[in-house]
Here is the input.
Amino acid sequence: MEENNYDPYCPATSCKQHPDGHYCQTYLAELKFGYKMYHRLMELIEDDVKYKEQIDEIWDKLYDQTFYDKNED
Here is the structure.
């Protein structure tokens, strides 16, 4: 029996904001919230040498996945 992989929710980080999307406004709000949280949290820890190496590693990995890895989705 074939599995039904249909899911009416796309993850906000991979949402394409399709004109017929039922959840696009909600996801856009979630993306805005996540973006604002990211910046506030980074203000708290970016200059802390305790986190510098980990932040750089995470940033590099996610940057490459987002902009170069076409198999991410």
User: Anything to note?
Assistant: The chain has two helices and no strands.
